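User: My advisor, Dr. K., asked me to get a structural model of this assembly before our group meeting. I'm new to this, so sorry if the format is off. These are the inputs:
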Amino acid sequence: MAKMIKLVSGDGAEFEVEEEVAFQSKIIKDIVADADDVIPLPTVSSKVLIQVIEYCRKHAAVNSFPLSPSSSAAAAASSSSSISYSKPVSDPALRAWDNEFVKLNNSSLFDIVIAANYLDIEELVDLVLETVADRIKGKQAQEIRRQFNIENDFTPEEEEALRRENSWAFQNN
Amino acid sequence: MIYLGLVVNKDSGRSLYLKSYISSSWLLVYIARIETKMSARDSQEAESPSPVCSNYLGSAEESIPAGVKFVRSTSTLGRKRVVLSKSADFSPHCGSSSSPKKLCRRSTMERSNHLEALPLDVLVKILCKVDHSDLSQLLLLSKTLSQATSIAKEMHFAFATPISNRVSKEDADGHEEEAPNAPIRHRVTRSRLSALSLSSITAVLFPSRVDQ
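Assistant: The format is fine. Below is the predicted structure of the whole assembly, which you can bring to the meeting.
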């Protein structure tokens, strides 16, 4: 009998999910180990929580298989460093689903970044960060500014000083 | 061809879809008209139009053929005089607007999760996933991003090999790719040992069942 965990979003909506789905979030796993099964998540809105639960449901089946020694070693190694290197999702169908999942505008994507980071769901964090990085890669500064609405708060002198200090970056690309 | 979608979150829940094949200046007028209508009523917060506005303006500029020039023109919409200029100028306008009736309200953009509003450690993690060649662009974007890029550089890029994007090309020596500062080899040395001369001084340590 699957144990159910209750998640309460910031705007008070309640979601009941299976234990294995919820436990993809390390935070939730730790809380349930110490306290009870009703977990308030005041910083996560319902809209975002629904999407996160959808992701976790989809990936719960993959994670339920026991880890092989090599992958558990990789997991241990990656969790010890602060910058973790993502393990690529092996199943192509799941990867395709992930790609569809992240077809969101920047604003919604950032909502998921923050929620996944807060809930510490490793695979989802990697997925969304990779997606954002892909939106930055290969672009010129003006393009990046336009896409993310970034204001240039440098004065021309500051910009010149930065270029000089960081000449390593401006060598032939 | 420019495809524009503007979703307006009004009490009536109407959505407005425009398909425009015509020139950009007309496009800008249309967007300005819709924005002034919205700001005039100013009921609910309309989260989506503001970032959408700039995004679509960005894509509008890209899809304009090279020959079309943006004209600086003014037009009077209602009682407001709106200056229409090159869409690239919209970003600074968005940033510096203090009155709520201007295009692309800054406050709504801040609320809708700006890249720079992300916590610094998350930002650094994102930047660690870009390529080495993108770092120069990121350093000059803004102070927040510059700081995050420096941190990413110290934590990650200083220890990672740049991935070369160049298609490997054959040069005169027949080598596929030449290292940037490698010493020039005029003559590739061949091994002076040959299997035959070695057989007198070698012995098989682990004889295999299958003899070659």
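One thing worth pointing out at the meeting: Helices of chain B lie at 24-41, 49-63, 90-96, 106-111, 120-127, 135-139, 143-155, 195-198.

User: Perfect, thanks a lot.
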